[in-house]
Amino acid sequence: MPLFDTALQEKAIIFEIGHAYTKLGFAGENSPRFIIPTKVENSANGTSKDLFDYKDNNEFYEQVITFIQKLFFKYILVNPKDKKIVMVESILCPTIIRETFASVLYLHFEVNTIFFVPLHLAALSTLAIDTALVIDIGYKEAIVIPVFSGVQVLNAWQAQALGAEAIHDEIKGQLILNGIKEEYLTPKVIEDIKARLCFVTNLERSRKYREKNPPPPCPDIDYPIKGDEIIKIPGVLRETAFEVLFPEDNDRLGLPYIILDAILKCPIDMRRQLAENIFIIGGSSIIMGLTDRIKHELLELVQSDVYRDRLPIKAFKFHTGISQPNFTGWLGGSIYGNTDLLNQNGLSKETYLKTKKLPDWSNFNGEETRSA
């Protein structure tokens, strides 16, 4: 990318800042320019830490300044002053986080407009549909939110700590039990093992593992590490690492359960349409076999005593996205940033300085809502 690209000066900048990775680029483009770890560097000692690892609000504010400055001046190379920003965010994002980002962008970098776009809603714009059950398998958690006719059904949302972090912990734990030195198992190595070597096994083989009657395992893999070291990745680990997403217990908190519970919380006339429009996004959803396993789990669960009488659904259908699942939300933000919605629903710097309020998901103008 040229140091100064005048064509980019008028385009909105799209940020999707996740717990593990940040995607950034420009409106109208079909993929992010950069996908980088969401970390801030300490120039004094050369170490780095997670952006969301902070002791108090003041420390977080300073970390956000450092991080945003890196995004503008190291990566996308544009002057942030008077720029328009689209922030793709989860609607479950804590208020302190979105307020801190807004304060930093408006007061420190003097951007012109910020348009906060809900992640699950943005993802649907990539399919040009307005109704689906959107499942985001992120780093910290899996969040299920039904969207019907372009409106998020928030009373039906479901979330559990079933994300990449739980999968990484499972991989690391199994490798340590197999005698691998913990010093070898850096976050980067664990993630590489997950992405390149692991897959989601089918329901039949999973049952055998649960019943302590394991089937013949898939082949072990030699994984090179630190140049001359080789560690062996057991076949059992390769196909059971993702079983943390499908726990079998009385709490019924596995991924298939929260999907069905989200559908059940919706009005009855929405349920079949949601079941036939399931859209899975997030980096961990790239793994081979996940969609097929979820489908078979759902078909079996609706025949169980728990759901048979309450959810008479016979089919579940899944959408295939036009982009990689790890940046589908960002791509939706890119689409929004290239429309008039940015000017209509974005919050201008002048308005923010007057009101000091951010728009909520149900009230773009940030005005007080009147009770009936």
From TrEMBL:
A Pfam short name: Actin
InterPro entries: Actin (IPR004000), ATPase_NBD (IPR043129)
Domain of life: Eukaryota
Family classification: Belongs to the actin family.
The protein's name: CSON008344 protein
Species of origin: Culicoides sonorensis (Biting midge)
